[in-house]
Amino acid sequence: MATTKNELGIEIEEAVDSAVDSIDINAEIARTKLDGTIHELKGKAEDVYGKAEEAFGKAKDSYAKATEKAKDGYVKASEKAKAWADQAPETAREAKERAQRLAEESTAKVRQTVQEQPIAVLAGGVALGFVVGWLLSGRRGD
Fold first, then answer.
1. Cβ distance 84 to 91 under 8 Å?
2. In whole angstroms, how far apart are CA 8 and each of 1, 3, 21?
3. How many domains does the chain have?
4. Is residue 56 part of a domain?
5. Is 43 part of any domain?
6. SS3 107
């Protein structure tokens, strides 16, 4: 069976058409897969963007809450410090009056004791003088 030139041309042409059809089919399959992959990646990117946007919103809310708490804490501390500063003169005056009252009461008790028991107070003073002299003399162990 001898193939003629014309028949050979037809066979080559059919082979080329078949190859081109096969390439077109494979290109369409690749394009479809690529479109699917692009669509999938786009969806994932949108999900990531949405999650990042949500996280940013939460962080922004947390920052606002923390800032508000800090401001409230500052205001409360400032008010408390002002109240203490306003009370300080009154507290100092009360302490001074209490100290004066205690000093006056102690002085009155000492006077009363000296007047009621002068000999006992004199003996106590002599004893105290003896002990202080002995301690200052340095002859404790001789």
1. no
2. 12, 7, 20
3. 1
4. yes
5. yes
6. helix
Q: How many residues are present in the chain?
A: 142
How far apart are alpha carbons 91 and 59 in whole angstroms? 46
- CA–CA dist 100, 94 (Å, integer): 10
| Contact predicate 75/82, CB 8 Å | no
pTM listed for this prediction: 0.42
Domain residue limits at 40: 5-97
What's the token pair of residue 87? 């009370």
- Phi and psi at 99, nearest 5°, equal -65, -40
Give pLDDT tens digits for 98-133. 999 999 999 999 889 888 898 988 898 899 999 998
Q: Is position 126 within any domain?
A: no
Mean pLDDT score of the chain? 87
